[in-house]
Design goal:
- This protein is α/β, with parallel strands linked by helices and 359 residues long.
- It folds into 2 domains: 181 residues, 3-Layer(aba) Sandwich (D-Maltodextrin-Binding Protein, domain 2); 147 residues, D-Maltodextrin-Binding Protein, domain 2 (3-Layer(aba) Sandwich), CATH 3.40.190.
- 46% of the residues lie in helices and 18% in strands.
- The protein is built from 14 helices and 13 strands.
- The strands form 4 sheets. The protein has a 6-stranded mixed sheet with strand order 2-1-3-12-4-13, sandwiched between helices.
- Strand 6, helix 6 and strand 7 form a beta-alpha-beta unit.
- The longest helix has 17 residues.
Length: 359
């Protein structure tokens, strides 16, 4: 990550040297439409509306950012429309999430978009925690044997949405997970857990802190593991938001007596990287004029260094470093490129486990 940060700094510096102040001031239009392929109130929508005023403040001329929600198809509908219709004059941006990346990675035939045609401007990572009903008597990896023969209903949005790496992880632990697909949000899944309809649940960092911590403190939920974060060497380490909660890898080793490995763990790690290290991504058409692209990069760089933004971001998205420009581009390319073997394995797993076909 440090090397990539140096690359980003060099890119920004080079761009600043080649662009005059008048050119920068005139580059972007006064109104920028920001397509969010999810409904109002969803995680990506909330993220974009949080980012908008901070980003506007840093852009020359303070252009108006208009959030345009285009839900449907788990974000595929709106993303396809952006890909086909977005103009390359600096007036169009796209905000995506894991639900946009996963179908692309799996070769879903509904996907019409191509990440090679876009330039990522920034990405906001997140973490997450898996927690379980306290009545099951499980609090550490050593306790997982108590779940032998126990069916664990899990309220989920969909097989190729944010829960995918979580389901891969729970299956690696040998748990009898029974997902109930069709939830409109992770918040709906949490409510099913609170009502006792689900025995296990998962929430991203901000939702866990804001909505699950009280359940844990009231002995109504027990954290099982966090997804951790990925360090500069590509290794999973404890999440700084949850330093006292072990990672999946730690729990697996405690239970199985060895490190996780094999094709299924490779799939888990791939989707974890794509869906969480790059949880929310801001993209623009690759062929927008270079001055406009540079304005956005410089503005985002100023934004993430702004103390007011940093203060607000800790509460909104957790204690994570937002990624910018070249850093995101490298990670995104690595994350979404699936080998044919790994893609086929995940499709076969989804079919055999949940009778879900990705065509």
């Amino acid at each position: 990550m440090k090397k990539l940060k140096m690359l980003l700094s060099a890119t920004l510096l080079a761009g600043t040297c080649t662009l005059s102040a008048p050119l920068l001031a005139q580059a972007l239009p006064s109104t920028i439409n920001w397509t969010i392929p999810f409904g109002v109130g969803g995680g990506t929508d909330v993220w974009a509306r949080f980012m908008s005023p901070h980003l506007t403040k840093q852009l020359p001329g303070s252009p108006t950012l208009v959030i345009k929600n285009v839900p449907g198809g788990g974000s595929i509908t709106g993303t396809n429309l952006f890909y086909m219709r977005a103009r390359s004059n600096g007036s169009e941006m796209l905000g995506i999430s894991a639900s946009t990346l996963y179908p692309y990675m799996l070769g879903d035939s509904r996907v019409r978009y191509d990440f090679d045609k876009w330039t990522p401007i920034m990405a906001s990572p997140t973490g997450g925690v898996v927690y379980i009903q306290p009545g099951l008597g499980v609090s550490t990896g050593k306790d997982l044997g108590k779940l032998a023969g126990v069916t664990l209903p899990f309220a989920a949005q969909g097989p190729t949405q944010l829960e995918l790496p979580v389901m891969l992880a729970l299956d690696l632990l040998g748990l009898d997970l029974r997902p109930v697909f069709g939830m409109t949000s992770r918040g709906e899944g949490r409510l099913a857990f609170e009502r006792g309809e689900a025995k296990i649940d998962f929430q991203t960092t901000s939702a866990y802190i804001n909505s699950v911590t009280d359940l844990v403190n009231g002995n109504k939920a027990v954290p099982l593991f966090s997804l951790g974060i990925i360090n500069d060497e590509g290794q999973v380490i404890r999440d700084p938001a949850f330093p006292d909660i072990p990672t999946f890898e730690e729990v697996y080793k405690e239970y199985r007596g060895e490190e996780p490995k094999g094709m299924q763990y490779d799939a888990y790690h791939k989707f974890l990287t794509a869906g969480f290290a790059l949880q929310k991504v801001l993209l623009v058409p690759k062929d927008i004029p270079a001055p406009m692209k540079q304005e956005l990069l410089l503005a985002v760089d100023r934004m993430v260094e702004d103390e007011a933004f940093q203060r607000d971001a800790v509460e909104q998205i957790g204690p994570y470093q937002n990624l910018i420009g070249a850093v995101v581009e490298v990670h995104l390319k690595q994350a979404v490129n699936m080998t044919p073997e790994l893609q086929a394995w995940v499709k076969d797993w989804l079919k055999s486990k949940f009778n879900v076909s990705v065509e």
